[in-house]
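Hey, quick one: can you model this chain's 3D structure?
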Amino acid sequence: MEYAKRIWFVTRLVFCGTMLATVCITSQAGAIFLTGHDPDFHASLGGNLVGARNINTTAINFIMDSAFNPFVTTAPKFLFVESTIAVPGGHTNGVNGIVASGYAPGSFDLVNASNLNTALNNLGQAGGYSAIVIASDFGGILTQAELDILNARSADIITFLNAGGGLYAMAESNNGAHLTPGGGQFGFLPFIVTSTAFDQSEVGNTVTAFGASLGLTNSDVNGNASHNIFTGTGGMNVVDFDSAGHILSLATRSQITSGGVVNGVPEPATLAMLGLGLAGLGFSRRKHTS
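Sure thing. Here's the predicted structure for all 290 residues.
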């Protein structure tokens, strides 16, 4: 595929002055946002509609930022993956939450298992898709049929991400009507197979500094429900924690392999510390050469 030929992620640290050092990052990596929340459900049905919608818009803006995603210009739509089965009790069509979050039909295409393989062939292609958004399996209606296809196409998805594409996936837990009983939740990113099912009210959740840098607040991640946690990061940045300190959401802009992140953009706090360290080196160099 054409996107496989594109340049991949490069991180550069350079001195941008004689006395102060600045960290300069050039990124051609894909963006990934994974969450144990199900804002596709709660953006249209829930106690905190605004918060759920903010999670959706924050995640989609993150994965479709044209400064990082080179496909947005020629492929401005995203692919929304969800079944079209009759909706079980306790679930809803997750696509309704995407629309409620401000994404009109036409800005994305809804595909299910019957046409998902064909749609995945259009990732990164002109007139195709610059990102993938995957519904939750509770309260959305992602089913095992869609999940199995995504997992089987993991290598293609990773290639797409490493060429600059984006991916946003919501809660996968097999809770509710048990729509993914065969397992493999988040298996399209093999380093995230350690997700654990939960079904908990959103009380006492906290956004990290990285999550805040994306535009999220504590009020966004409380007031509804969440359905899985992550027991490892795979090198990704933590976006928010639950009240017990479990990881609820992860995000990164990076090159990835089946084993995890290769070159990630550091969290803001890490960048600040690195910048201060480089600044110290700059002052030291000036002192010894003056």
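One thing worth noting: The radius of gyration is 19 Å.
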